[in-house]
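ingest -> fold -> write
write: protein_1
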Amino acid sequence: MRKKHAIHNEEACDYLLASNKFNDWVVTTAFYSALHFVQHEIFPISEIGETFSDLNSYYAKVLKKKNKGLSKHSATIQLVNSKLPKCSSYYRWLYDACMNSRYTNYSVSNKKAKLARDYLRVLRNHLTK
């Protein structure tokens, strides 16, 4: 399911990039595509004698108990840093760019939109599933 969702978001990203009209959404769909791709790559994960099939179950049972203030986005960033270090800088850039374009400034340049798409492509190239 996660990979299908990632591909769906990636296709939306490409469609929006070609339109040259909604660069904030290019960045947003690039990030959420990356999120689903990395979660597909990381899970299932085993810890504390249990296997977790997705972030929600792992977060509820393991991560939330370790750090009550940890958001799911921050948890994913930590998991990418530890499990997919070659992807970490691209993932973090996409996360930061998405949060900025969604919540601070929806006016995103063509250059930044293209870079978001390029970073998604590079990130994907480091994944094996």
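write: protein_2
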Amino acid sequence: MNKKSALLYFILTLILFLGLWFRLKGISTNHSFWSDEAFVSSFSQDIITGKTSWIKGASMVGYQPLQIVVTAFSFMIFGISEFSARLPTVLFGVIGIFFAFLVAKKLSNWSGGLLAAFLMAFSQLNLSHATQAKPYVVLQTLFLVQIYLLIKLIDKKKLSALVMLFITTCIVYFFHSLAVLFWISFGITLIVTYFLNLKKLIQKPLIVLGILLSIVLVMYFFGIFKELIILFKPLNGRFLFAYSNTVFLKNIFLRQYGIFLIPAILSFLMIDKKYRGLIAGIICYIFVLLFMWNFRSYSHNMRYLMTFFGFIFVFFGVFLG
């Protein structure tokens, strides 16, 4: 290893260490729970104290059962406290820093990777959400993991990468049902990337029927049909445009994060053409996410957009890399 490589690895290690240190410092004083942190953690506490079973406790909040389970395991290992409840989020946040580096480096170079890792590590938005016992940083991290695995699949075309993608996309859904949208980036990427293969596949109806049946069974098993019905059911007498958070969205785009967003979008023009399927998948996912946040959500809370901000930081690094 030459001096330049050693320096780059040292900088990456330093960013990861400081990212972990700032996050641990943020939870070390055991600040009182927010109400939604306390709500989920109470079920985890009931599991550990024997007041309820693991299955029943995890199912008490149907849209984030795995968050309850992970928090319960943390209580089991480190004791019942605010610190223990928030520690898994801290660890996922640090993993997110590392995958931000991997994705940006893969799509640009070391400089882009380090810049993406730096922004993920020290963004006030990320620091704030990574010190709360909520699943939104987990979604952000696993979104970057999904992107990285899609890159590996496009590069290597190995079945193992496809299996890992499927497992990751399934797991993240159980942290929060909002991750049902991850199937968009997954599916669109595969369709665009392997379009020519799909044209050949269509000529084999039995295989197509088997694939479609498998997709339907997976969607049924994970309750995706139910979630889609909930997402698009009429609200306030309106089918699609139930609310409007456009003012807040414009404020995010133009005032707060415009300096990062515009370069992130421009980076799409610089990325290798073989990743056009990945870009299409990310664009479709972000479009649906922003549409849902803007027109279907009564709350304009930024936590629902954590995956979007992860995209901004990573692809800003890609642009400048």
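write: annotation protein_2
DSSP finds 17 helices and no strands in the chain.
Residues 99-320 form one domain.
pipeline exit 0
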